[in-house]
Amino acid sequence: MKKKEILCDFLLWILFAILLGLTISFSFLPLLSVNPFQALTVMFSETFSSTYNMGNILIKTAPLILTGLAFTFTYKANLYNIGAQGQFYSGCICASAVSLALGGKLPGPIVILLAGMAAILGGAVVGFIIGFLKAKFNANEFLISMMSTYVIQYVMQLLLRTSLQESKHEYLKTDYLDKSTWLPKIIPGTSVSLGIVISLLVAVLVWYVLYKTSLGFRIRATGLNQDAARMSGISPQHQYMLAFAISGAIAGLAGLVEINGMQHMLLTGFDTQIGSYGIGIAILANAHPLAVVPASLLFGFLQVGGTALGHSTDAPASVIDLLQGFVMLFVLMSFYFRRKAELNKLKKKRIVTEEA
Amino acid sequence: MNNITSLLARAFFMSTPLILGALGEVIAERTGMMVTAVEGIFLIGAWGGFIGAYISGNLYLGFLLAMVCGLMVALLYALTTVYMNQHQIVMGTAISILVTGFCTFFYRVIFGIQTTPLKVEVLSTIQIPILSQIPFVGKILFSQNIITYLAYLLIPIILFVMNHTALGLTLRSCGENPEAVDTAGIDILKIRFAAVAVAGCLGGIAGAYYSLCNVGMYTSEIISGRGWIAFGICFLGNWNPVGALIFGTVFGVSEAIGVYVKSLGMSTMPSELFSALPYVLVIVLTVCRKDLRAPNKLGQNYVKEN
């Protein structure tokens, strides 16, 4: 099959999986005496009713692109960074700490730049530690990355109760960041910040690094066949550490986008599922860095649509979680059925040629 | 002294679900299947257990429903990985996300919006006659609930089946040399499927332990990584039921310490760090243990040639 045909085929299967997920999850809505068709209409009409709401999709999409890319990057090295949530929180902590400490004292753009660097570093350090433990001690990387998420969550709670807590010391959150450290808004009439641009740039950058540089080649070679890579002089251990550090850095940057671009403060228990959505997005995108962007847009739309659904009907926003779960499941299943269909086609072809 | 007794009793109490989950994981992983959906299985167990107990008013029916729910999720996981050959880690994560949405949505469907959390009476302890009278040890080991006793009873049973029966040999061979099992005419896929199903039943009960024995209610954060800790205990225990017991107890102690420090309520204490102790322990111990011997084909799907 030609490349274009394969892509079309792939998209058809994905589309089918999404529609099936939508149908099944929405068919549960009558249990709450909500008409599923009405719910669907509300989801679309509310979301696209104003520029502001459409902007919200982009706001939700921006960090999702980054966590999706974070999972994709290690996936290419045949590693599983299922703890992007922790690296994201680490980035959040660093970004907000720097912005709080320097906001108002230095010019805004410089503070944002420093906060960005801190967020990247914060995520990268966590990622690097996981990669290091994998490389040096052959530790189980997905177990460790999952555990690190919970450790960082508790560290964040501790910081929010002590050194980072707001000046009144009442709630578990920080003060509002200084306005000069907020990411500038780019579309008038919405709250869309520079974050989406950053995310898109990173997506292109990741694609470039993975497919056009020797670093990316080494990482992909390690992922495809670790032994073959070692024979040709690539040290898999180095690639583990590099891939995890870069993956962590990307997830950390999502912290900046979320803190300086949207929340403008750090609080406990926000975006608790951004890491797992990242995995879902990477699955949907078949782990291609550029395909992560439309997949994130879909998830972003579902988030906004889910909120709208919760506001204007009796349907809870959790129906969206259900929907996303089903979509992920069906996309993974579709890989199996697509492969089976392909094999059947090949078999038929062989029979035909043998007969002739 | 009294403090230490109650702390240790609490530790054994908290280690039960971890041991149960880890035992299920041991059975499945010996056949080469990592049950990475364990977090989802725990969660649906907690959810199903609470719903069953609240509606029927009987805790044991709750545990039964939890077992069935855990089994269902495990079957879905086994179907997609064993028979549809999808990647185990990716599939497990996807199923866990689906379960999270499922539980939240259907909790709402069943109970509507509640202003105060619904509660059930937690499972009572059973004092074993005579043994519970022994000073110190009696309070710690022999004043637990029935699930804890069953979990301990399960360990020698699994150990015996694993090491001294033909079934155990087949199970272990599936993880070490699947080709040989296949050549011997045994349906390896069926065996793996069944092993995951057993892990699902045990995981479901373990999850229900949190909602029915620990807090007596259900929240969506009730599991928060405990499934993954059970998964880690299976690794640390070297895929051995006795190892699962030892490390399950270690984590029970660390969790009890976290709860104890938090209950002191001293704002100067970094109690969060003590709560994080079990998670830190998983990381540190996986790095420290060098003598682990994983099943040869752990995490690799077996594709039959045709």
What do we call the CATH topology of the largest domain in chain A?
Answer: ABC transporter involved in vitamin B12 uptake, BtuC
SS class of chain A: mainly alpha
Mean pLDDT of chain B: 89
- The biggest beta sheet of chain B, please? 2 strands, antiparallel
In terms of per-residue confidence, which ranges of chain B show pLDDT below 50 for 5 or more consecutive residues? none
- Please state the structural category of chain B: mainly alpha
The topology string of helices and strands of chain B comes to HHHHEHEHHHHHHHH
Specify the overall morphology of chain A.
globular
Rg of Cα set of chain B: 19 Å
Pfam families (chain B): BPD_transp_2
GO molecular function (chain B): transmembrane transporter activity
Membrane topology (chain B): Multi-pass membrane protein
Protein name (chain B): Simple sugar transport system permease protein
Could you walk me through the main structural features you see in this protein, from its secondary elements to its overall organization?
The complex is a heterodimer of chains A (356) and B (306). Chain A has two domains: 76 residues; 276 residues, ABC transporter involved in vitamin B12 uptake, BtuC (Orthogonal Bundle). Helix content of chain A is 74%, strand content 0%. Chain A is built from 13 helices and no strands. In chain A, helix 3 packs parallel to helix 7, helix 3 crosses helix 12 and helix 7 runs antiparallel to helix 10. The longest helix of chain A has 38 residues. Chain A is globular and about 85 Å long. Chain B has a domain of 184 residues. Chain B is globular, with a radius of gyration of 19 Å. At the A-B interface, helix 6, helix 11 and helix 13 of A face helix 4, helix 10, helix 12 and helix 13 of B.
